[in-house]
Amino acid sequence: MAAHIIDGKAIATDLRARVGAEVERLRAAHGLEPGLAVVLVGENPASAVYVRNKSKQTQEAGMRSFDHPLPESVSEADLLALVARLNADPAVHGILVQLPLPRQVDSQKVLSAIDPEKDVDGFHPVNAGRLATGLPALTPCTPLGCVMLAKAVHRSLEGMEAVVVGRSNIVGKPLIQLLLNENATVTVAHSRTRDLPAVVRRADIVFAAVGKPEMVRGDWIKPGATVIDVGINRIASADGKSRIVGDVAFAEAAEVAGAITPVPGGVGPMTIACLMVNTLRAACAIRGLPAPAV
Ligand code: NAP
Questions:
Q1: pTM of this prediction?
Q2: Ligand 1 atom 31: the closest Cα is on which residue?
Q3: Atom of ligand 1 nearest to the CA of 246
Q4: Is 89 a residue of the active site?
Q5: pLDDT by residue (tens digit) across 167-187?
Q6: 260 C-alpha vs ligand 1 centroid, how far in Å?
Q7: Which of 234, 235, 261, 238 is nearest to 49 (CA)?
């Protein structure tokens, strides 16, 4: 195996520690205690684990965590009323509504009801527009983490050929904007792209955000390229259990790449750490303080 393995877990631990130190400084200097409210509807086990981790890591970073579990049967009106209360609550600086939401609720309506200043997931159209036009914005956590991982390998992404496979609103599209802000040359591939292997082979950095287990093969990777694998796919393993794999065939790609993120242990831990960063940034902006140094 030739590639350097990018240790997302260690990089995320370091980032959370820096957030914690900044929270401590803000408390001492300004009496500011950043607070994150997380709304979880229903009993989806994967979402529940994710929300538990968020609450735990929020508290470990010295911030306040407010959990709002709601039944699967919640009405759209009740959910919107909760968002309105959280928008008005001065102890809450970040609001996250865990997706997916049940069928009776219009997700876009709920996400658009969150005060953009508290939109720590960065999904509000105002933040998407601000990011696209180069204004300061709260940015979706997963793409933010992807760029941090790429910059853990390359101090600057300027002029590099970056290929993003996937164009979703939560990963691919904001990632494209963040990479443009880093002055990378960006190509976006999707399900209608012709000759995807040839497109990926051009890349100095590949970001795979597709949701198809091990779709990106080793012989698609330019020798020495950096590979950031966003995919989280559960597949059956030979022993009848299941395991998590990414969108990249890791063992093959690691033979060719210069650096690669593992799954799990790559992008995943960065997503929650970036949520802490966004909560801290939101708290500073709401209080009129300069952006924190993380
Ligand atoms: P999504 O909304 O389903 O979008 C998938 C994208 O991949 C779409 O743009 C789609 O193209 C494209 N695509 C699908 N099949 C393709 C193919 N055969 N060739 C080329 N492109 C193809 O998924 P997502 O929400 O962005 O998530 C992507 C992956 O990242 C999933 O595995 C998800 O679990 C994972 N994820 C991980 C984290 C994390 O914290 N690590 C966070 C979020 C998501 P079209 O637009 O043409 O349909």
A1: 0.97
A2: 211
A3: 32
A4: no
A5: 999 999 999 999 999 999 999
A6: 18
A7: 234
